[in-house]
Amino acid sequence: MDIFSTPIDTNGPSSVFSKSVHHQLPVGCRYGPQDAPIQTNNFYNNLTLDNQTFPVWTLPYSLWLTTEPPQDYGLAFNHTEASQRVFGPDPGANPAQFYFNPPKIKSFVISATEFSGNKPSLQLSDHNKMSVTSALVLDNNRFIRIPLAQGMGYITSIYQNLQPVIASEVGFQEFSYVSSTNGIQKYRVKLFNQVIWSFYVLGNMKFSLKDPNHIIGEGVGNVTIQIARGESQSYDVTAGTYPIKIDLQGSANNDNGQYKFVYQMEGRSSSGAGLVWCLPHHIEALDSSIASKYAGLDLDSPTKGIMKSYITNELSMNEKLPIDINWEPWTSFSTTAKYSDSAKALIKQAAQIEVQTDVVGMANVDSMYTAGKILDKFAYIAYVCHFILNDDDLTKVILPKIKQAIEIFASNKQPHPLIYDTTWKGLISSADPAADFGNSNYNDHHFHYGYHIHAIALVAKIDPSWLQANGSLVLNYCNSLVRDVASPKADAFFPQYRSFDWFHGHSFAHGIFPSGDGKDEESSSEDYHFAYGMKLYAKVINNPQMEQRANLMLAIMRRSMNMYMLYSDDNTIQPKNFIKNKVAGISFENKIDFATYFGRGSIADEWVHGIHMLPITPVSSYIRKEQFVKEEWEQKLAGIIDRIPDGWKGILMLNLALYNPKRSWKWFARQDWDDRLIDNGMSRTWSLAFIAGIGGTN
User: Fold this and answer.
1) Is residue 404 within 8 Å of residue 360, measured between CB atoms?
2) How far apart are CA 439 and CA 433, in angstroms?
3) Which pTM does this prediction carry?
4) Where are the beta strands (DSSP E) in 11-85?
5) Which of 234, 475, 497, 640 is 20 to 30 A removed from 245 (C-alpha atoms)?
6) Is-same-fold flag (36-244; 341-693)?
7) Alpha carbon distance, N-terminus to C-terminus of the chain
8) Which residues are catalytic?
9) CA–CA distance, 39 with 44 (Å, rounded to integer)
């Protein structure tokens, strides 16, 4: 059974959420009540923002609308290779702080003779998670349709009643006719930068080099042009077909998971299939039936290593699912939690203090993110009191408080209530876009809502009946949060998987703010924390498909994050002069920057490392492998840990337990405890319970 086939819900959002039109309207899209939801955090979103000129990356290519006179008006595209990367601020440093690929090199511009007098509009339709149809439109009868799909093999432009013009600012050194087979003409293009491209024409129109910057069709008509970097027989046998949509499919059987990208193709090729590109984490997991269809072509991606091509209309990847990681503390070296009496005694001492906190007062703040961390903190304390300490008295103190605090948000009575945005279609904060990390512009929803979902799962594990209380108040709230971030299918009210990018293998936190380097994500750990929270929530509501989807996301992130975001010394994906940073910092589509949006640290770089750690839960060790944690500690953190004066120290010290739990326990168990040295989302109770459970006291 396809685990993406059943929606979480099809009804409209709960009446506790007022409705509002978003202050920032999409550009080039229909966005009425009857129109499909528009993606806010995925690869094509830049084309819906501002003046639509910010680039998008289908991988391995990038595209953007170019409008600057006197240059040709149209959709430009390019491919950059690893040798073009720019490292800085000191290019000779090892490690460099950042690297990026030079943007907007106009190798080609898809245009038309008619565009010189009348500027077309860039319109988007057929909104899907992994694909969209773009079109340069003069009127209903004159347009160029350019389907965009992640991993597509060619840049395809379908002309309707226009005279085609393919321009280049790099310039055409050579343009030569090669052959014609089955109604497809092949040309060879050599740019002045000496890069060779293949140029295919579907239709009877002839093309010629007008001048060093323009290739032109012989007249007005209907014709399709496909362009790809390099020369290969694999291009010859797949030209003529192109994807117009990608369907996401998946299945799970015990700990075996599979996900598929099914490319809906138009046109016809001599092989009967198209050409698609894979990232390294796809290649490692490819089903053998797909791996055998390797096309022999490799191209660099901007930040994720070398992509390989396959002659296929479907990609199928297999993953082993983490079905054995659930509620109890877990690491790769200690998979069954055990507690001594002395450890429980110290955990109880911490809990006796922390359950006395004014939970409602701490949590009822004007930030969904901060509130979520507080709710999760005390939900974990309640979990420890009930399931690890088996202490009814402590549970009775903390459980009503955390329930009351969560119900404020479930009732939508927090300082900045959530509203349902009828424009882009989603649940957003009613705060100003500059507040709460940009939640109202769709920033960080998986971070923010992941804490709430995880907290609700923990409390519901203690009292399952609570979810259905008060007319299923909390159940409806939590379902809405999951649906906003990770709806398995698009429906009338929410897009499919707002945050998680199934092609990249991780989420993007960046919402509807245009960006020259594309979407980005800072915190890998809060990304997988969402999936972990969704998994536990699925268990308490007995939704096996949701649980399977969460497990599949975690398995994919384990693979992708250890290639692209968390760097062991043996990493072969990232540049050699970047790996010593050990973590990415901020991962953009076109750039990686060893930094955070709020700085690098008060002592050294502890914030950059810590943002990839918090919160520490049973799933942390699954993603953050023991050897990586050891390397990061020894190479980057051991020399600064004693000087860190604030809560970041607690984060780093709890993360230390993922490879050295005894040292971590010694720090958390000491008598001169100082609450100022742990993060506001951390508790000493859970920290001690986690470390003890994985053998820190043995």
Assistant:
1) yes
2) 7
3) 0.98
4) 18-20, 56-57, 62-66, 74-78
5) 234
6) no
7) 45
8) 444, 522, 526
9) 8
The 10s digit of each residue's pLDDT in 482-524 is 999 999 999 999 999 999 999 999 999 999 999 999 999 999 9
CATH number of 341-693: 1.50.10
Q: Are the C-beta atoms of residues 320 and 255 closer than 8 Å to each other?
A: yes
- pLDDT for res 382: 98
The whole-number pLDDT of residue 275 equals 98
Q: Is 371 in contact with 360 (CB distance < 8 Å)?
A: no
**Which amino acid would we find at residue 314?**
E
> pLDDT tens for residues 155-170?
999 999 999 999 999 9
In terms of CATH architecture, what is 36-244? Distorted Sandwich (2.70)
Task: Give the Cα-Cα-Cα angle 150, 156, 162 (nearest 5 degrees).
Answer: 145
Q: What's the CA gap between 648 and 641, in Å, rounded?
A: 9
pLDDT of res. 683: 98
**115, 360, 135: which is closest to 214 by C-alpha?**
115
Q: How many CB atoms lie within 10 A of CB 25?
A: 12
Look up tokens 């168990």; give the residue.
669
Sign of CA dihedral 386, 392, 397, 403: positive
Do residues 333 and 662 make contact, with C-beta atoms less than 8 angstroms apart? no
3-state secondary structure of 160: strand
- Give the number of other CB atoms < 10 A from CB of residue 492: 13
Residue boundaries of the structural domains of the chain: 36-244, 341-693
H or E, element range at 177: strand 172-181
Helices (H), 203-266: 233-238
Q: With beta carbons less than 8 A apart as the criterion, state whether 450 and 508 touch.
A: no
Tokens representing 574? 């990232």
